[in-house]
Design a protein that fits this description.
With 486 residues, this protein is an alpha+beta fold. Helices cover 51% and strands 10% of the residues. Among the domains are: 69 residues, no CATH class; 155 residues, 2-Layer Sandwich (Gyrase A, domain 2); 56 residues, no CATH class. The strands form 2 sheets. It has a 4-stranded antiparallel β-sheet with strand order 4-5-7-6. The protein has a 3-stranded antiparallel β-sheet with strand order 1-3-2. α7 runs antiparallel to α9, α13 packs across α14 and α13 crosses α15. The two termini are 42 Å apart.
């Protein structure tokens, strides 16, 4: 056996510096890795030899990539070329679009830990429509109140947590609690930054999809992202322009839905507005999960395993699941067999909560636009310090500006809404992913908004698959639950 390090992330400025110092004539590009790995299946040479060949023949490597990726259709080859991207000065609203891409990694400047100043994006379409003054004035009012709110929340948090405040090491954490509640007053236009790691295949998809969005900021982001990467790996990034499928499909569906709902509308009473509603679960979920455990640990067909699981007593089923969880620790992922049972929730979340929820990209999350009709989430601490009235005044001013902007620019109006405003989302996930969500978000260290949401999801889910979710909880609750179960 021979294990070789083929490469790793290196700062681009350092690459340029090393190239200048060495007077290297050839291009330094991740395309050579892709080309070398693509040749593995058809060459008798060892992988390190293939990499050496690709480095000395960059043009040939690029030609090979184009043929394999675009002519032969083996797009996965492009996944071997990886980019690290600094993203600076984008709005929180655009980040939601960027982070829809599952197979990438993101680390974002956190409104929980950083006190934001006065940086915000003024969308081009709002400026061009003559609404800039209204927009800027509203955001400035939001930001002023945000800083006032933080100034009052900080001493409140320290007073409410005297024991923790006695230790200087907890200062940053307690200040973070004040910041995370104050942020509910600022807008989705607030500027942020993030680091993104993305492979060439997903980069091409991101360029194409974002260039098709109706938001000017998204299109500008796509252009700048392409400009930053196009010369590094031209053989792997080709289809970057918006297609009719990406540009028109959702718009056409929306128009058709409006027609169909008008044609077939019926009065069904007031819609439920519960923050968490379990809409679907795999029938007989515990039995199905047990069948998957039987299947992976026997030579029986899955049909036979389902038959056996359905005939097992409640006691035997519990023994089987306890065996599966007996040695688990809070940092362990549960067995993949639990991916065979699913749950679907309808959620109503604040923008602050959704910012965290959207990071669970292995789930399927379909979100509607933000809607003032869904109300707002007011942090309990804001009520506790007696600033709810002023908070709601900010909300009303934001919604007044929203209505004026929406009249001319319905798609850009959301920029002016606050982190307290809500949207509906449909979230489908398997039991294994719910374990991951619970460990992280139902934990005492999680932000209160998403913790409440996660605990409600888990409570409803446990009712329909109690054995499968036997050990699902936040990390802080794990020792007590383990002691209770075992």
């Amino acid at each position: 056996m021979k294990i070789l390090l083929a490469g790793y992330n290196v700062d681009y400025d350092l690459i340029c510096e090393l190239k200048d110092k060495s007077a290297l004539g050839q291009d330094i590009t991740p395309e050579t890795i892709s080309a070398a790995y693509a040749r593995i299946s058809r060459s008798p040479k060892s992988v390190d030899e293939l990499r050496a060949d690709a480095r000395t023949e960059v043009d040939k490597a690029r030609k090979s990539n184009r043929n394999i990726v675009f002519e032969m259709g083996h797009s996965s080859v492009a996944e071997h070329a990886v980019f690290n991207i600094d993203i600076i000065g984008v709005s929180r609203l655009l980040v939601e679009e960027i982070e829809k891409f599952r197979l990438c990694s993101y680390t974002e400047k956190s409104q929980r830990y950083v006190l934001f100043d006065k940086d915000f994006v003024v969308p081009d379409e709002i400026a061009e429509a003559g609404l800039k003054n209204l927009f800027v004035e509203t955001v400035q009012i939001q930001n002023k109140f945000y800083h006032q709110l933080y100034g009052e929340l900080r001493p409140y948090v320290f007073e409410q947590n005297k024991e923790l405040a006695g230790n200087p090491a907890n200062k940053s954490m307690l200040e973070g609690w004040a910041k995370e509640d104050a942020r509910y007053a600022i807008s989705l236009a607030t500027e942020t930054q993030l680091g993104m790691t993305i492979n060439a295949r997903n980069l091409e998809l991101m360029l194409r999809r974002l260039s098709a969005l109706p938001l000017a900021e998204a299109r500008l982001f796509s252009e700048k992202l392409y400009a930053a990467t196009k010369d590094i790996a031209p053989s792997l990034i080709r289809y970057t322009q918006a297609t009719d499928y990406d540009r028109l499909t959702r718009r056409n569906i929306q128009k058709q839905v409006e027609k169909l709902l008008q044609k077939n509308s019926t009065v069904t009473g007031k819609e439920k507005s519960d923050a968490v509603q379990l809409m679907f679960v795999t029938p007989e979920a515990d039995t199905q999960a047990a069948a998957a455990l039987l299947f992976s640990s026997s030579g029986l067909s899955y049909d036979h395993c389902r038959y056996q699981a359905a005939r097992m007593s409640a006691r035997d089923l519990k023994i089987l699941f306890k065996t599966a969880f007996e040695n688990i620790q809070p940092y362990d992922a549960v067995l993949r067999e639990l991916e065979n049972v699913h749950l679907q929730f309808e959620l109503i979340t604040s923008a602050s909560c959704f910012a965290q929820l959207k990071r669970h990209r292995m789930a399927t999350i379909i979100a509607q636009d933000y809607s003032p009709q869904l109300g707002v989430t007011v942090p309990p601490s804001v009520r506790a310090i007696g600033r709810q009235k002023e908070f709601m005044d900010i909300v009303r001013r934001s919604e007044d500006a929203y209505c004026q902007i929406k009249h001319l620019l319905p798609l850009a109006a959301a920029y002016i809404l606050t982190n307290a405003h809500r949207k509906r989302a449909l979230m489908k996930l398997n039991a294994r992913e719910l374990y991951h969500l619970s460990r992280l978000r139902a934990d005492v260290h999680a932000q209160w908004d998403i913790r409440e949401l996660s605990e409600k999801m888990l409570k409803q889910a446990r009712k329909v698959m109690p054995l499968t979710l036997m050990m699902a909880c936040g990390k802080d609750s794990f020792p007590a639950l383990q002691k209770k179960v075992f």
